[in-house]
Amino acid sequence: MTTIGQDVNQPAGIPEVFTINDVVDRGLCVGCGACAVVDSNVKLTRNQYGSMVAAIDANILPGSIADRVCPFSDNSLNEDVVGERVFASCENFDQRTGYYTNLYYGRRFTEAELLKSSSGGLTSYVAIELLKRHHVDGIIHVGRDQSDDRDALFKFMVSYTEEDANACKKSQYYSLSFDEVVRSIRGDGKRYVFVGVPCFVKSLRNICLNDAVLNEQIPFMLGLVCGHLKSSRFAELLAWQLSVPPEKIQSVDFRVKNNASTVNSYDFQVVDSNQQAHAKTSNTMLGGNWGHAAFQLQACDYCDDIFAETADAVFGDAWLPQFSTWWQGTNIVLVRNPIIDDILESGKNAGAITLGGVSIDDLCKSQLGNFRHRKDGLIVRLDDDLKQGKKVPKKRVDLSALGKIDQKRKKIVRLRKEMAVKSHEYFLQAREKHDLSLYMKPMGQLARNMLKLYRDPFMKRLINRLKRYF
Questions:
Q1: 15: burial class by Cβ within 10 Å (0-12, 13-18, 19+)?
Q2: Are 71 and 34 in contact (CB under 8 A)?
Q3: Is the torsion defined by CA of 113, 115, 119, 124 positive or negative?
């Protein structure tokens, strides 16, 4: 078995430890590729549901290096431990967000730059400034796969110029792995900034803590606030609803800004094989409502990291009342690295970006739904699993708080999990039979069931109307 790096986190020897083998066996592999970076025997493949998963064998022993970099294994350092090791010098800490130096809201100054970005454009701004200031030589991030023999619309790649980096803007809701690109840059003498979702940053951080070469080469990691990851079928579903079947997709854009919509309502656009563009507002299509968890990876039901606690900075959407009318988009930013603080403040002084302060409570309010899913919802899901005799990973939630969660919320959590699972199954049938209705009919019924759960009882709605009237 080929490995790289020096062991720094020996297994604790707890009998019920949840290892990488359990992660894969239970279908909780997020497909990040960390295990394949450190162990050449591991391969990443895209499964029948369009999700990247690790194929491991008996050589992956509990406590091995591959086990200790898997983000959902108990043998990997969790966010609290990594944060204390890497960001202990930060003057602020909050249990909801981890360590931080400063909190901001902001956006690119020009509308042209904003329209090319998913939100306020500050993720790409900081990454490019790190490149321009020669802190790094390249940016590892997700971009469109332009190769002729591609089997996916996107891939992790490296941008070495500002022009190349600008071509890789926007969020891509697509299951991908970073193993190939990280292996390709290891030992090349260059320095990089990595951009990814919380669990990917955590796994890469665990790699770097075990590998002095990569630790030197990747001095910056930028995180993205993540609701959950999607399989590649998400793009196919939305495109198919616009009369573009999977085999006719040329490219997609998940977040086209629309000046007739609010900040959290954007268009999905697909270009077909005839170069014709089709677009529609995402949340008006079945599966476009993020709360319905269509094509959510099962691993996301076991994640408790909202603000990428192991990243040097994390960027999200400022979905707060004071920014709701700014349809061009605004970022919230939590920073843990003084160099990034300096980049943002310098950008503000130069007029390149607008920047202001935000409180820790407002920052967390922007992700209330995420907290309900990753905290309260996680408690419900773990309790359900344990009652069914399933082995579960150790998470940073208090299971004794189950009694504080009302029955309506528990029903919503369980229905959302069912919708995530069924979305993969129904769409596989639809693809095999070339019949989208095999997905739309049963998932449409589940969506209606969810709507009923969210609606208040008739008498409560009547009383609220009377209160407003009088």
A1: exposed
A2: yes
A3: negative
